[in-house]
Amino acid sequence: MGRLFVVSGPSGAGKSTLCRRLLPLVPDLAYSVSFTTRPPRPGEEHGRDYFFVRQDRFREMIENRDFLEWAEVFGHLYGTGRKWVENRLAAGQDVLVDIDIAGARQIKGNFPSALFLFIVPPTFEELRSRLLLRRTETAEQMKERLNRARAEVEAREMYDFLIINHEIERAAADLAVVIRADRLRMIRTEKFWADFLVSSG
Asked: What is the pLDDT of residues 7-24, one digit of tens each?
């Protein structure tokens, strides 16, 4: 059985960029691309950053229980495809999901064996600056995002590891260390020992 790694944090923490930098550092790690009803931001691609779908299609997927988790965030819907993740975990592959904190709470109940990683910038002021640089929200929306970010930081107790995203390469390296270390837990090395003992004669 593979391990589910859940990466989340407040909006503006750099989760998606960090996950993309991580993938070349960790072999055999599958990245789950989320579904969303929000429009693409500049530079985002369908199927790479998100699966961008209409709201009626998303609602249909909710009815069909196609999501491992889903949440509404600032008027847009986000969700993680259930079948894709469960099939890869059953095949023994580790899966990385990049979701918001509401989604992480849902997964916590369904996958107690998942490992939860909380991503934040080094300061709240840095978080504010990153959100302002996006220039994708009105002043009122920005205020709402910052208020939500303060509340989301209070959820940090449900996570197993903290990754401080001061510099993206260093943060990706820290994240890779956590995943590699987890793979070396004795409970996850059964296949190695089976092969080792067979080769002993």
From this structure: 998 878 889 899 999 999
